[in-house]
């Protein structure tokens, strides 16, 4: 099987970086991934021959490779399709990993290596070419990748025979006819554009997404998946044509995941499974359409990174990612920036095609993701961790986002979207940004001596990003998002709270006041919470939100430097001193607050 040389022309790189999804460019990425799969398959077979020669011989791996080559000569398109299967890439990477970490020729290893024969059998079935190939079951089921399981239970090594349109299974000296499995294929067509995608519940190699996968589905569930896919496709084919055209030639498999019990959509892609998107069943067509755009961005970037390094290989360095609670390394941040570039573009268009009841959601999502993604892109550009191609790639993405800043957004949507974004960042900064202890000690000395600090005493204060334990669900964060996603539901939930919180949602008094718009009461409440718990990230973030929009210098500095203010406040309290968060912020800013603060 011939392997072509692949590269990514500058024009294609810039086109992808700007969020475009030209099908010709994505087609070149698909061709590169197919060549990668050929290399991986060859490497599995060669590694098995070198390290596990008995298994290599018993499973006739060389013969399976030769069979694939022979089928390719008579049905090249069929074999190209099999070689591009995400199931093959995920299996090959996993198999190589397991061989690297084992020295034993075991039953489990042989079952894994026998997948070579299973993929060859899939090619033979699709091309109608006779074969006799050794295969092996996994957990008692023989699954043909991408097609499904045979109805007959199987134990131990076996063979599949195919001739004259008949498929037979040879196991334990017995030959039985079997019906070739058929995949669950959803073919949707809208606005002249067709997408055929398989829903794969069975192929073991698709357990590569670090989320629990559904292993079975009934007819009602399959129908629900089909209807949701059709609805999402209508949205994409009409309003996001470029993405839809590219998806139709590259995304070929959906992997259903188990719901996490919290009601939110969980979705994932894998660099080893190009062409597959894993997701729970989203709540509506719009969520699935957004999810597909998001995960498709990840798939494209995975393929780009196979061709070009965009981030240097030096370990270390953690960054704020607006869509995560934990700090992220530069490579992961790059993935987030690219995924949310796609999401921002999705909402930029989709917000104009929503019903009046959903328009606020669309505008707020657009303005929020636009601001967050641009800030993360600029952090990457300033990090010094990008290669020359990476700087070109992220620079083009940043340029596109800056151009979108000129797009008008209704004021209410702007306020709600950016407010939710600010809350997330403030909580993260207090939790993860550690200010230099020397800076904090110097400022404590100034405060104790009643000396005004100079900006140079703190403006360039070094800091580091520290990992921290993952926080649990935060109801305030969810409600701030719900304010624009579903305003009526937000109001219904808020009504369950008493005047000072403590109702069904478990809100504190300050949070309840903030969400009702009583910012003076909220600020007073958060100051009291900070007095009791000086290092509480949620209380500091709440105070930032309660003060957001005020014109005094204390509020402005608190927003920009909440890690510094919180660290200094905690140090003063630990030393036996007294301080007020807003008074301290005003002191750092060089002036007192404007007197309107409660």
What is the distance, rounded to the nearest whole angstrom, between the alpha carbons of the first and last residues? 75 Å
Gyration radius (Cα, Å) is 28 Å
Number of strands: 13
Number of helices: 24
Q: What is the 3D form? A: elongated
Low-confidence stretches: 592-598
- In this structure, how is the largest beta sheet organized? 5 strands, mixed
Strand order of the largest sheet: 7-8-9-11-10
Strand content: 5-15%
Mean pLDDT over the residues: 92
**What portion of residues is helical?**
55-70%
Topology diagram in text:
Layout: H1 10-17, H2 23-51, H3 53-58, H4 61-74, H5 76-83, H6 86-100, H7 107-113, H8 115-127, E1 131-135, E2 143-144, E3 148-149, E4 158-163, E5 166-171, E6 174-178, E7 184-190, E8 193-199, H9 219-239, H10 241-250, E9 253-256, E10 267-268, E11 276-279, H11 285-307, H12 330-350, H13 359-383, H14 388-404, H15 411-432, E12 433-435, H16 437-448, E13 463-465, H17 475-485, H18 487-495, H19 509-516, H20 519-532, H21 537-547, H22 553-560, H23 562-574, H24 581-589
Parallel strand pairs: 8-9, 9-11
Antiparallel strand pairs: 1-4, 2-3, 4-5, 5-6, 7-8, 10-11, 12-13
Helix pairs in contact: 1-14, 2-6, 2-10, 2-11, 4-5, 4-8, 9-10, 9-11, 11-12, 12-13, 12-14, 13-14, 13-15, 15-17, 15-21, 15-23, 16-23, 17-18, 19-20, 20-21, 22-24, 23-24
